[in-house]
Amino acid sequence: MSQIGFGSRIRKSPFFDSTIEAGAAAFTIYNRMYMPVSYGNPDAEYELLTTAVALWDVAAERQVEIVGPDAKALVQYLSARNLESIKPGVARYAPLCDHNGVLINDPIVVCVNPDRYWLSIADSDVLLWVRAVAGERGDNVDVFEPDVSPLAIQGPLAEQLMADLVGPEMVAGLGFFKHCFAEIQGIPFVLCRSGWSKQGGFELFLTDGTRGNELWSIVMDAGEKYGIGPGTPNQQERIESGLLSYGSDHLRDATPLEVGLGAFVSLDNDIDFIGKAALLADRSGQSGRRPRRLVNVDINGPAISNTHPWPLTRGGVPVGELRNMVWSPRLQRSIGLAFVDAVAAEPGTVLSAQAEWQTLEAVVSGQPFGDPRA
Amino acid sequence: MSQIGFGSRIRKSPFFDSTIEAGAAAFTIYNRMYMPVSYGNPDAEYELLTTAVALWDVAAERQVEIVGPDAKALVQYLSARNLESIKPGVARYAPLCDHNGVLINDPIVVCVNPDRYWLSIADSDVLLWVRAVAGERGDNVDVFEPDVSPLAIQGPLAEQLMADLVGPEMVAGLGFFKHCFAEIQGIPFVLCRSGWSKQGGFELFLTDGTRGNELWSIVMDAGEKYGIGPGTPNQQERIESGLLSYGSDHLRDATPLEVGLGAFVSLDNDIDFIGKAALLADRSGQSGRRPRRLVNVDINGPAISNTHPWPLTRGGVPVGELRNMVWSPRLQRSIGLAFVDAVAAEPGTVLSAQAEWQTLEAVVSGQPFGDPRA
Known about the structure:
Two copies of one chain form a homodimer. Chain A is α+β, with helices and mostly antiparallel strands. Chain A is about 20% helix and about 30% strand.
């Protein structure tokens, strides 16, 4: 491990001081914002998330706001998924592709008002990309990063905690990927039933960045009786649960079909979106691109994890990379995600993974993300 | 200080292992690549850069390659600077603006061939932006990130070291911001007289990422007699020398005119580029934007530096932020860069900087970057 340098190029989250005080031990940089990735005890953090409730600073999940008369048409043109049915109060997981059909982000699209949308993004500069598209098209929209910072409350006890905070009616009425305006002690946020785990929970999209530490304290105090603690997006749980980590699980030239997001790509109707022609050419085999797949793999033996991709071979021939590998407490074995040539993607295929210290046997077990989220 | 998390989302530079072995103590993340920012002894690193020669891993300065029949026309449309005279062997510092005239990067444009260009970028996803523009325009180009990783050799003795490595003729014939193809022991690179310091030196744009550690060792061995050591882009020297740090010295909604890059923006001819109309509206006062300026400031007293922006006021009224502050060994005082309302930009203006622990008096001393680089 090395130190991280703090400086003015990278932003601090509205919850930054609270996370330091709570013992944040390691950070990454995500959308040019510091984001905690560890509080120093991975086993305890997994336990907290899967049995109680954890509070995550995910302000680095920045928003790209698109507002104006052409906003809805533009958002549909940007999104590979059919968004006809989106409306205020509804959010959709909607991959974005560039003109070559390459996945450039996998945001949640939040419809705030009929002419106002947030793309709640993973780690890439979608703001620049949307501005370029809107600018060249001459769309009548404003595109900017608003003062909106998500705080995630995740875990089986999140439901009760949230009911204590905003009242049981609001929580009971909120379906998965639905959202509404809310406030606690005058602190305004959009409350959405969402989050990057499958343990249940909410994201509070704080809309006043000056009040982050206040909100953190209020949630922590109210959560004490449920055993709440600080946590971070959890690599073990999300791989067990089959949630994609954009840019981490695959190479940056991957298509949404290659990473298993076909269920969110509307190729078979008359919706027009950026990258559709390229994806259709891929599907019909006319693009000349060699198809790859994101697959689950198992490695037998003791607990294993990686900090960078390991090369994979089959019979001595390179076939891809083992991108992420963790010990699964639920399955009691090491599981991971590999990005491999399609010919090596069949379940049961035996691959060799070149770790730093030895060669390991990895067996393809299936494909993740078959399950549409919402 | 906190730890940095290592994982598959962020890439390692081809020189990564060498930097770890050389004692890299802290990293940042820049263009989704780990980049060393300290070897643990700032005074010694400044001394090395300004009196001898230092070797920097700046592979995170990624390239966006634009190649094809429409490449030259597209590069001109992307760049706020007039590039009519660019040709193979020549590089130009050329700011990029979005359709609102906002500075989105300040790359060096390297003309590799008449139909092949590299944008050698600061920290933002120019690749996505260029692909969006090219895609919407229907330009006949390929846009991608090539296997090109800069290694910088900077300092007053860089000239002699480079002559030892590639021969004195090649070095003597290479003017500022000029480049040529070169190799050392079969390791291919583009050699450019450039770099993010004003101590003199070169950037070696390695074009085979598998050979980074080899190249590092060769340069280190050859540099031993000049007292070479590892270093990083140096905050003290670059502020003394007036080199912009994109995204760090200013807010991300700044225009190139606001940050002092007017000399590189071609508003008074018939060159068309993205953002020109917005910048002209700004200049004529029709945009309604409140103008700001990047200015140098002095703070009297002991050595001071900051790790995040400090709010600035004048007579109790907020006027901007003190973005970066360092102790200048050359000037023997604390100097910095502030991004302030234009009304507070006059030399001699006295501002109050709110540091974490006290209020400091900062005096505007002038504007940086008046000096066109190349």
